Amino acid sequence: MRHDRFRSAVSPLRRDLAAQPAVLPPATLPSVDSLIAALRPEEPVHCLRPAVIAEAAAGFVASFPGDVLYAVKCNPEPAVLRAVWAGGVRHFDCASTAEVTLVRQMFPDAAIHFMHPVKARAAIRAAYATQGVRDFVLDSADELAKILQETGAPDDLGLFVRLALPPGGAVYDLSGKFGAAPEQAAELLRAVRPHAARVGLCFHVGSQCMDPAAWTRALALAGTVIAQAGVVVEVIDVGGGFPVRYPDLTPPPLADFMTAIATGFAALNLPGTRMWAEPGRALVAAGGSVVVQVQLRRGDALYLNDGVYGSLSDAGAPGFRFPARPLRRGDAPLAEFTLFGPTCDSVDRLRHTLALPADIAEGDWIEIGQLGAYGACLRTAFNGFDRARIAEVRDRPLLETTTRLAHVA
Ligand SMILES: *Cc1c(COP(=O)(O)O)cnc(C)c1O
Description:
By secondary structure, this protein is α/β, with parallel strands linked by helices. Helices cover 28% and strands 21% of the residues.
């Protein structure tokens, strides 16, 4: 097995897409265990399970009553985008020129939507003029002016007003940064109407939102804003935030979220309005893991070759607990270990301890799961630890998605 078959996992958004074929698929192996046996990697390896991602995407597309946009920031790896596409997703929520360019290069027919409320002027210009993007989000009159100036105010724009939500239900509350307050959102709906071929109202309840009622409440607020604006709204975009399982977080089944959304939407009585959703985590979390290696053991502390400046950012300050599995044989009892990443920064440490075999030792590998979302894409080059590889595997993930559990039950 030649090691150069295992591509670097550096973000596709950092690759020079014109010079390098970003779409080259990674090597495929039957399982993580066979991958480790073949590669014996001293760098972290991102393991993708495209079949699992396609399955989650297809499940979401089948159950959401509207159009499904994949939130590209969550994992822009071309193999992941292909898997999401294979699952039936044809719309992409992009937030930067690099994301738009990558998706357009891979899928000439995809519908790309620019869903970031604050954009560089050059990004607006390039998206409209060269990448066929027609839908843009805004949460201020100033951003509307930018969009109209940079596109030349054509008659085919989709203009989406981002509504701010009060906090509630999400592990990651995003309410502080973007969104117009209800009164201001109503005003913006009126302001965009004369310039728009289609008007949308969108919101984001926050990431890993465990409470289906958060969408019902948000939809009720959206209804109030639309009524107050008194204009026709073609699209209500309910955003992302759909949760997945973690060892200490078991969300209700996806069906409960769909029911809450369908109920909340029906109550608005807007028969001419279509719904969109922008899931990220729910489509791709289960389909990615990272294999790390123990570089030193000191008592109950393990020093790993990946950490919070690499793919384990969410295990640091945000304190997500990820499923883990030692890639070694033996029947040693479990013990709790503190885990440190490779950089010299003392914050490079996982917030929770992990139960691992008591005799775990230098050189052992550990697979950490549910990292298809917000894993590889958050890698930095801090301290020079930016090297990682990527491969595809065909075995099942450490934790199944709630969608699949619902099918099995
Ligand atoms: C990040 C983001 C998403 C995706 O969120 P998930 O929690 O991964 O589903 C969707 N929409 C917007 C506007 C976002 O910023």
